Amino acid sequence: MKRTAFPIVISGPSGVGKTSICRRLLAEDSATTYSISATTRPIRPGETTGQDYEFVSEATFDALTMMGQLAEWAVVHGHRYGTRKSVIDEAVSSGLDVVMDLDVQGGMSIKRLYADSVLIFVLPPSPEALESRLRKRATDDEQVIKTRLKNSLEELKWAPKYDYVVVNDVLDDAVRNAKTIVAAERLRTSRIAFE
Ligand code: 5GP
């Protein structure tokens, strides 16, 4: 049976473990590919351009938006991030489901543009768990941690707009649930070409 590939958006507050879930999904499912976003954020140590992000200048990002090459873009934590239309189109036309790690603005835009997309929101097991993860991860001072936590809790309000929620308490369970969602979505009759 032939089926149409689709975009899979993974969103959730910072510190919830989106990146780990995306990485495992990609490593364990050969029918998926990752959408590498363009960003104006400075590269961090350990990151590679073209692998983590396409790190671009403000001028290049302006050009991408003006030429209509981005399916969506948003300002997140003071920097611009965007998804190239060509990345989605090429993945889908080669039959790969394209995993995208996007903020909630990006998630909503993709849903509007690609009606067949699947949106998964990753939730922490509790607000306290999110706070302790942010504290463990951050080297920032108390004020920065407080601001991040406040923003993260704000983002949780978007969860009901998503198609699915996955709670990330134990990573293996969260990954299994994300894979189950993808497996079921692939079996939707609307995605299958009956001959
Ligand atoms: P970071 O800079 O920490 O890797 O990512 C910051 C945030 O930007 C994350 O919440 C991530 O989901 C979001 N993000 C990454 N790429 C894109 C994109 O192309 N579009 C949108 N809207 N958000 C993105």
Could you characterize what this model shows?
The chain has helices at residues 18-28, 58-66, 85-93, 104-113, 127-137, 142-155, 171-186; strands at 2-3, 7-11, 32-34, 38-39, 54-55, 70-76, 79-84, 97-101, 118-123, 164-167, 192-193. It has 195 residues and is an alpha/beta fold. The chain has a single domain, classed as P-loop containing nucleotide triphosphate hydrolases (Rossmann fold, 3-Layer(aba) Sandwich), CATH 3.40.50. α1 (18-28) crosses α7 and α5 (127-137) packs across α6. It is globular and about 60 Å long. The chain starts with a strand and ends with a strand. The model has no long low-confidence stretch (mean pLDDT 94). Guanosine-5'-monophosphate binds at residues 14, 37, 41, 72, 74, 76-77, 81-83, 101-103, 105-106.
The CATH architecture can be named as 3-Layer(aba) Sandwich
The percentage of residues in β strands lies in: 15-25%
Q: How many structural domains can be distinguished in the coordinates?
A: 1
- Ligand kinds: guanosine-5'-monophosphate
pLDDT < 50 stretches? none
Largest sheet strand order:
3-8-2-9-10
Average predicted local confidence, pLDDT: 94
- Structural class category: alpha/beta
Named CATH topology: Rossmann fold
Q: Count all strands and give the number.
A: 11
Q: Helical element count?
A: 7
Going by CATH, the homologous superfamily would be P-loop containing nucleotide triphosphate hydrolases
Order of H and E elements: EEHEEEHEEHEHEHHEHE
Residues in helix, %: 40-55%
